[in-house]
Design brief:
Number of strands: 8
Oligomer: single chain
Low-confidence stretches: 1-7, 99-104
Strand order of the largest sheet: 6-5-4-7-8
Distance between the termini: 55 Å
Mean pLDDT: 79
Helix content: 40-55%
Number of helices: 15
Amino acid sequence: MAKIISITEHFQHFLRELQDSFWGDVYGQTRQAWKRFFELESERERDRYAGWPQHGRGARKPGGYRNGYYVRGFATVFGTIRLRIARARGKSFLPRGLERFQRRAPELAMLIREGFVRGLSTRQVGRVVTTLSGEGVSAQTVSRLIRDLDDAVRQFHQAPLSDEWAYLFLDGVSLRVRRPTGRKRVQMLVAYGVRQNGTRQLLAFLRSQGESQTAWEGLLGDLYRRGLKGEKLLLIITDGCPGLAAAIETVYPRVLHQRCWVHKMRNILEKVRQRDYDEVKRGAQAIYQADNRRLAVTAFGDFRQRWQRQYGPMVRRLERDLPELLSFFGLPRHLWKKLRTTNIIERCFVEVRRRTRPMVCFVNVKSVDRIIYSIFQRFNLEWKTRTLKLFTQAA
């Protein structure tokens, strides 16, 4: 058996070497063929312009003297092709087949953008492209190509929305930006929608200085203007930000509001003494893990009676927020676990942080929009063929 494994490994190694050699030869020969073709075409165009071939006789046009060559590189999927472009005095002869070509193949431009989206710095992207194509790409070139995403960002913000979303998750993520006065944080407010059939989409994002009511009204107003009127909205789930709650009352006053229990549990436990931590946690969990709203209210009553004396302010805040913490009980039971937290959108933020961590901080605010758009657009493309099956189950 060991002998068979050894032979198999040798064969696989041989096969990889054969494939590398074959494609290396094909790419190399293709590159040389294109090089010869375009260089000969450049010389023929110069000779026609000059009026006579290189070693022939005939009438010479004014200024038709040959003036050597210059080298110009074209990055392609076959590697960089460096062409000797023929020149005459005061004129060069780029082959007609290349006149409309960009000096960098679209595939390489796409590679540069993809590397940026994946979290590589502009210098790292340049090194990757240089390794693959043999063409040196500066950080400034990478930045210039990335700016092409600005049109796509504008189209994303202006795209109309259908009024068929049943659940709306709202939350924000903080990112660092390099400013003339030093590094500062900007808040990215995000809207995530789910239809009743389980399809989902990241609907909008808005850069702001914080999570004030005005900032959230800007995002929600944008959703409303683009077509999300809220006629079919059943629930809006948030992290409990006061400014966001006030904005919902302004834009979508008739939609139920659910506060995230993960955020609330964090607020409850952050001021609890270590010796009481586990007991307080179990008591608070009993509220949202109850079998129905009535039993949840009963569980809160027990919690209040047990902890009112030691943690009065915390208990009073929980009582004040209780109606919005129990809104999920009005929805189908199989959705309770999904609808009582903002975890579904927090998972997207985990990916945002993972991809932006290598960048340390953004050079300017526009670069924030580009990377967030690119990450969200990738999510949306992936979700076109994937649904949240839990939302399609019968109650």
